[in-house]
Design brief:
By secondary structure, the protein is mainly beta. It is built from four helices and 21 strands. The protein folds into two domains: 116 residues, Cathepsin D, subunit A, domain 1 (Beta Barrel); 159 residues, Beta Barrel (Cathepsin D, subunit A, domain 1), CATH 2.40.70.
Length: 286
């Protein structure tokens, strides 16, 4: 068992050792598989990529400038308090964390339970257990209407954000309606992706988690249509699949996903990644 104490409004951090170098990592609740490092941290640790296949380039609107070059390899990583494990380590030429050397997924930490202690427990707090898709994955899933939706938790996101297909399913079920207010989601340094705020109906919830300040990803053009004064974000056409349900050519947008953010999780005093139970266990006052 590992306990990570999180300061009010802060992020979960855990030192991790790789090749005799200690790095400061922010622990992510929302994705699996690889430790992702800022390039200066990888260089400080003396990391070398796999020959031939260990480098490349990918394009995505969540990357500043729309693209990034990456390197990767397998290394032994020892998070503080946990056993050493062989983990894919990726480093890119754009910053992935402003407050740490990199981002470490909770699911790669070798511990039966990882406890995120967020502060004193409220008197009215209740314990909620939500099953995950599998023992090693952080993702949960729910079905709304005709859509099966992947759901993740993330303390690093101030808002609950979803893509267009998930929002359409929620709206069709009467859980939300669009509000016509434009905002921006900033998942990485230098990234600003437009969203439209949605208004939840009374008592609206996903997997027992209340919808507090939900938002849906939209394109830059949609943001300007809603609010001509909206400043430009950083998204490009490569990320529009998250902002549409079906294109004119009948291509469907990306599989539906919802990221439960700090607007909901600030009401929790404890979040537990329970590996044997294949569940998230949350103690929250809602």
């Amino acid at each position: 068992m590992i306990v990570i104490n999180v300061l009010p409004g802060g992020q979960p951090h855990l030192p991790a050792r790789i090749k005799a170098i200690d790095l400061d990592t922010r622990v992510a609740l929302s994705f699996d598989t690889a430790l992702v490092l800022n390039t200066p941290a990888a260089e400080r640790a003396g990391l070398k990529s796999f020959p031939l296949i260990g480098k490349g380039k990918f394009e995505n609107a969540m990357i500043p400038g729309g693209e990034a070059r990456f390197r990767w390899n397998l290394f032994g990583v020892t998070p503080a308090g946990a056993a050493k494990g062989t983990v894919p380590v990726v480093w890119v030429d754009k910053a992935v964390a402003a407050d740490a050397d990199g981002v470490l997924p909770a699911s790669v930490i070798k511990a039966d339970r990882i406890i995120f202690d967020l502060g004193p427990q409220a008197p009215a707090a209740k314990v909620r257990t939500i099953l995950r898709k599998s023992g090693g994955s952080v993702l949960m899933k729910t079905r709304i209407g005709d859509e099966t939706i992947n759901v993740a938790l993330e303390l690093n996101s101030p808002d609950t954000v979803m893509n267009a297909r998930a929002a359409a399913a929620l709206a069709g079920a009467g859980l939300v309606k669009r509000a016509g207010d434009v905002g921006f989601w900033r998942p990485f340094p230098g990234v600003s992706l437009p969203f439209e705020r949605m208004v939840p109906t009374a008592g609206a919830a996903i997997l027992g988690l209340p919808l507090v300040r939900p938002a849906v990803r939209i394109t830059e053009a949609q943001a300007r249509e809603i609010d001509s004064r909206a400043r430009a974000g950083t998204s490009t056409a490569s990320d529009d699949d998250d902002a549409i349900t079906v294109t004119a050519s009948r291509k469907r947008g990306r599989d539906p996903w919802i990221l439960i953010g700090r607007d909901v999780l600030n009401q929790c005093s404890r979040i537990v990644f329970d590996r044997p139970g294949k569940a998230w266990v949350l103690t929250c006052a809602f």
